[in-house]
Amino acid sequence: MGTPALAIFNIRHFYGLTVFVLTKARRSCIVKIIKITKRMRGWSEVEFR
Q: Its domain of life (predicted)?
């Protein structure tokens, strides 16, 4: 009985923590993702050309 409730609590805590971290570092993450996508696009364009 106790184990499933503990697991659910841990999952909720984990999701809450990840959401908090994501919202806190969202701008930097978005900038990094944009830079990575731009690099990937440039590589793909070079490869296809």
A: Bacteria
